[in-house]
Amino acid sequence: DDGVGSVLNALEENDLEDNTLVFFISDNGAGANGVSNAPLRLGKHSLFEGGTRVPFVVKWPGNIPAGLTYSHPVSTLDVFPTGLAAAGAELGEYRQLEGVDLLPYLKESEGTPPHESLFWRQAPNWAVRSGNWKLTFAADRYWLYDLSKDIGEKNNLAGRHPEKIKQLTEQYQKWNSQNTDPAWPALSSKT
Fold it and tell me: How far apart are the C-alpha atoms of 175 and 188, rounded to whole Å?
């Protein structure tokens, strides 16, 4: 925390604050050793909301409204294309990115979401969020939630919505077919 303050203070002291796009992002939810992510379920090293839904703060005075709470999910993969757009640079036509330029979206709290779906994979476990639906495959079973009604992922709806499981699994498989295998094995994949 002190390091973040030092960086922000240096930007202000050097009159760079208004011309600097700052991202502050946690890499995962809090650990499991007596720390709570309530009302979110679990935390670090899990694909439940406590491990994937983390602080993502963007600051760029004069370009992004101060104090705005943006309600749609975004991804750390959005940082690079957003930074490119802020710098006025373009990504070559030959490059394809999963992330999007968030600048058009960060002007208001509602509106069109930047992503139709978001995906995660972690050894044999994976998750997909599409709209308010989130499907996690872990411990050789499906965990399905409507996050608009159950942010804490307490009521597994998998047994009641096989069609939603099929639809979200197909979305994940299509997305994952474009990925390469991890370069190293997971050290301690939670099941």
Answer: 24
Question: 64: number of CA atoms within 13 Å, CB side?
Answer: 23
**Residue-wise pLDDT tens digits, 28-38:** 878 767 778 88
Between CA 111 and CA 128 the distance in angstroms is: 21
Cβ 135 vs Cβ 144: under 8 Å: yes
The 3-state DSSP class for residue 80 equals helix
pLDDT in tens, 107-163: 876 778 999 999 999 888 999 999 999 999 998 999 999 999 999 999 999 999 999
Give the three-class secondary structure for 118. Answer: strand
- Residues shown for the chain: 191
Whether pTM exceeds 0.90: no
Return d(Cα 26, Cα 24) in angstroms, integer: 7
Beta bridge partners of 142: 137
What letter would DSSP give residue 112? S
